[in-house]
Structures are given as C-alpha cells and as structure tokens.
Write a structure and sequence with these properties.
Protein name: FAD dependent oxidoreductase domain-containing protein
Pfam family, one: DAO
Structural class: alpha/beta
Oligomer: single chain
Number of strands: 20
Radius of gyration: 23 Å
Shape: globular
Strand content: 15-25%
GO cellular component, one term: cytoplasm
Strand order of the largest sheet: 7-8-6-13-14-15-12-16
Number of helices: 11
Largest sheet: 8 strands, mixed
Bound molecules: flavin-adenine dinucleotide
C-alpha cells in the first residue's frame, strides 16, 4: 500500500510495496497516490497529508523553536521543495536530527520526481578539488558528510536488495579513483604544488606518464605529469538519490517502531508556481529548487545565480570493437571528463552553455551531436580511444552557478525573511547555487540547513554562505 501507516508515502505508488521508491523515470501520475492520501486522512485524521483549501490554517503560523518542547497531536510540518541532492540531504538531516520526542511531517514537492533536475543527470564525479587540484573551501567537512550520506544510501540499497528485488544490487558508487593529466605546460608546476596539500581522506599523488599509464593503459599524458586521486569516486546519481530516499523512509519506520513521536515523509509530484500556493500549510518551507529557484515570482532577480546548461553523453563500446575500459582503472578528469561505469559503459561530460535557460533533461539529436563532437575532441587529447565509443543516450541539466568569491564559488544558503514578502520567523529557507559540485556540497549543506531550521536561527550557518544577502 502506498500510504503505509508507518508514516511513509510516495505518490503514484499504490500498486507497489510500501517503501519502494519512485523516480523521475517511473513516476507517471500522482492522482492515485493523492486519492489514497485523502482517504487515509478521512479514516485517520492524525495522518499528515497535503492540505487542500478546506484544511488550510487561518491561525498565525507556529514558530518551530517556540513550540518544539510542547508535544501536540499535530506533527510539525515542513515542506521541502525539490528532490535533488540538496532536497533529499535536507530531508535526511531533518529526520535524523529532529528531537525524538517531537512529531515531524515532511512533504517533498518535485514537479518531475526524485532526481528530476540537474542531480539526476550529473556525471557523478566526486572529489574535493578545483580544476587545478587545489583543495576547495571546507573540503574536509563536505567530503566527510558526503561519504556519510553515500554510506547511508548504500546500506539502505543493499538491505533492500537482500530483502527483495525492488531495487537490485546495482552499483551506486564506483570507487576507482580519478586521474587528471596536465593538459598545459603552465599547469604542471601548479598541479605538483597543489598535490602536496591534499586531504588525508582523499589523497593526491603527482605522477609521471609511466605511473599514470600503469593505472590506465590507453591514457595520453602530454606533459608527462598527472595527478591521481585514489579515493575519488563516481556515483550513479539516480540510483544514489533513490537509495537515499529509501534510507529516509527506513529512518521514519525505525522511529515508529521505537515508539518515539511520529515522523512522516510524503512525496508530491507537483509544480510549485509561487510560494502562496503553500501559504498557511507549513511551519517551514525549504527551497531546494536548483536552477529553477530564480523562477519563483517571489525570488525573481533576488538570487545571485547564473544558469548554465550542460549535456552528458552516455557511451557504449560496440560489440565488434576492442579497447574495453580496464576494470578498476580510474575515471578521467581533463577539459572534459569520463566517468567509467563498467568496461563497456562510460559517461562523458559535460558542455557549458551559458546562454541557455532550458532545464529540460531531453536533448535533441542536433544538441546531442554538437555535444558529442565537442566532448570527443576534448577527451581524445588524453584518451584517444574514446573515438571508438558510440553514443547511446544524452541527457542535460541546468546548473545554478553562484558568483565567484575570493574563496571560490560558494553555494547560497539562508533564511529568506528579508526577501520573501510576508515571511517572518524563519519560515522560508534556501539551499541553492550548488553549481557544478552538488554532490560534494550536498551532505554538509543539508546538515547545516537542517540544524538551522530545527533551531530556527541563521546564526548556525557560516557567514560565508549567507553573505550573498548583504549584497541584495
Ligand atoms: C551536465 C551536468 C553534469 C554535472 N556533473 C556533476 C558531477 O559530476 N559532480 C557534481 O558534484 N555535480 C555535477 N553537476 C552539478 C550538480 O548536478 C548540481 O550541483 C546539483 O544537481 C544541484 O542539486 P540541487 O538539488 O540544488 O538541484 P536539482 O537537482 O536541479 O533539484 C531541483 C529539483 O527541484 C525540482 N523543481 C524545480 N522547480 C520546481 C517547481 N517550481 N516545483 C516543484 N519542483 C521543482 C526539479 O524537478 C528538481 O528535481 C552537474 C550538472 C550538470 C548540469
């Protein structure tokens, strides 16, 4: 049954076992799920459901921190808009860190479904370094929290695979490292210097051509220098997000089984056209809308985000061609990148179209062909055999790029009281501008945001991440 009594529901899943995850690919319609939710509400009025007009509260909104200690029959209600890396990380951390003695109901809204935006198409390359192998701001924290979330998602997926066949034990993560050959003479010394300042948990090794080719035989190393990140990895973003959502569902069930206060999560496949659509329904609304945050009328022109469309190409090696990608060899980072997902499956990316605001994942044959030409040309400089591989699919996403600061491009976090008309008491929050590093950032940002929401204060957020508001 879709709306299991343990407080977990996914829309459009009434024919599935409780807990099975809907993805962007397989969500068809939310009508069945919604009908079920409404029926459950009639038979069980304590159930948390998306309130319609008739159930809208007219009383002033409660402030979470003020009412947290007094337990009431109504769950605290929180809406998370967007089910990408940012949104699901916020959901996980809200569930994980909310007091056991408090009710919490989280409604997730996504117009496409889990992984429906940039997260679902990302290449999934994960490491904490800049293009010149310089450690990024707060890299250690980001790396640690991301590893925690990956482990959580993997554990949930493995447990489910053992339990049933609803999610197969297909890989979420390839821990094969990443190789970055120098592609310009001027970068050799910089890479060498930066390689001395890597993280202990994600080391950097500077090496010559022979050593690099020992790890990846067909690699070209034009300047006899490469940086190898043995602990870097690539993630299958859709599988990962589905597994993370499953972990959230499991956490809700664990709370219920332990006899603590009620936690609930629900997913609604619904477009939020303006924040007024949710008015009165929630104590807190967290916006994790990626590149489309700017498109809400309340936020138009108020977020310092630039948009950039990118295409990734999925490649296969034709049966009659030799030159398999060696099993276990590192993925490659260069002017383009390849993420190896098997000996005959690669993902290659990505393009940067700063003039496009198109967020559609669908790629026309013309766009695919242009992207393929551009990416193959770049990649063949360091991996010439890429020319033997053929395109099987192309997908695209819109990045939300934050402005460059002296610390690098930093995401945009904070409470939107000063920005959203009528907002008070930290009702609206944003996690945005994850740029091209959503995977690295999402664990840490989700944890920070959940902490701020639960304590109802922006004071726990690093100043660097909220300083964008001063410039408004
Ligand atoms: C081609 C490409 C390759 C990339 N490769 C990598 C990589 O290898 N490694 C890496 O770390 N990062 C990569 N990135 C960046 C990464 O994808 C982003 O940083 C990350 O996905 C942002 O996550 P998010 O949750 O903020 O946004 P999104 O994933 O875009 O999530 C926003 C969600 O909100 C939903 N939504 C939007 N508007 C509405 C609305 N009005 N109502 C309801 N729902 C709505 C969308 O459907 C979407 O699911 C890549 C990006 C692109 C485009």
């Amino acid at each position: 049954m879709a709306t299991a009594l343990c407080g977990v529901s996914t829309v459009c899943s009434s024919n599935r076992r409780a807990g099975e995850v809907d993805s962007a690919a397989n969500i068809r319609t939310c009508l069945e799920g919604k009908k079920q939710l409404l029926m459950d509400q009639r038979t069980n009025p304590r159930r948390c459901s998306r309130p319609g007009k008739a159930t809208k509260r007219t009383a002033p909104l409660r402030v979470l921190s003020a009412s947290y200690s007094s337990s009431t029959a109504q769950p605290r209600k929180c809406a998370v808009l967007g089910a990408g890396f940012a949104g699901l990380s916020v959901v996980w951390h809200l569930l994980k860190h909310s007091p056991k003695e408090s009710n919490l109901c989280i409604d997730i809204y996504d117009e496409i479904g889990i992984g429906g935006g940039a997260s679902g198409v990302a290449g999934g390359l994960l490491h904490p370094y800049s293009p010149k192998a310089k450690l990024l701001w707060k890299a250690a924290e980001c790396w640690r929290e991301c590893q925690n979330l990956l482990a959580t998602a993997e554990a949930a997926a493995n447990a489910r695979a053992l339990d049933s066949n609803t999610i197969s034990a297909r890989r979420l993560v390839w821990r094969r490292g990443i190789m970055k050959p120098a592609t310009a003479a001027k970068n050799v010394d910089i890479l060498k210097k930066n390689a001395q300042n890597g993280l202990g948990s994600c080391r950097l090794e500077f090496m010559n051509r022979d050593a690099a080719q020992n790890l990846l035989s067909n690699l070209c190393v034009p300047f006899d220098s490469a940086v190898y990140m043995p602990q870097a990895m690539n993630v299958h973003p859709q599988r990962y997000l589905q597994a993370l959502f499953l972990a959230c569902q499991n956490l809700v069930q664990d709370f219920t089984a332990s006899g603590y206060k009620r936690k609930e999560i629900h997913v609604y496949k619904e477009t939020i056209n303006d924040l007024g659509q949710l008015a009165g329904d929630y104590d807190v609304v967290v916006l994790c809308l990626g590149a489309k945050a700017n498109m809400l009328p309340e936020l138009q022109g108020k977020l310092p985000l630039r948009l950039c469309r990118g295409v990734v190409a999925h490649l296969a090696l034709p049966k009659d061609k030799s030159g398999e990608y060696p099993d276990g060899s590192p993925s490659i980072l260069s002017d383009a990148w390849v993420a190896a997902q098997g000996t005959r499956n690669l993902v290659m990316g990505s393009t940067w179209d700063w003039s496009s605001k198109n967020s559609s994942p669908f790629v026309s044959p013309e766009e695919a062909s242009t992207a393929m030409d551009e990416l193959t040309t770049k990649m063949s400089v360091v991996y010439p055999s890429i020319r033997n591989w053929t395109l099987t699919d192309a997908r695209a996403g819109l990045r939300a790029m934050p402005p460059l600061t002296p610390l690098g491009s930093l995401p945009v976090l904070g409470c939107l009281d000063e920005i959203v008309p009528g907002s008070t008491n930290c009702k609206y929050w944003i996690v945005g501008g994850l740029g091209s590093r959503g995977l690295l950032y999402h664990g840490w940002l989700g944890k920070l945001m959940a902490n701020a929401v639960l304590l109802c204060t922006e004071d726990v957020l690093p100043l660097e991440l909220i300083s964008w508001k001063k410039k408004q």
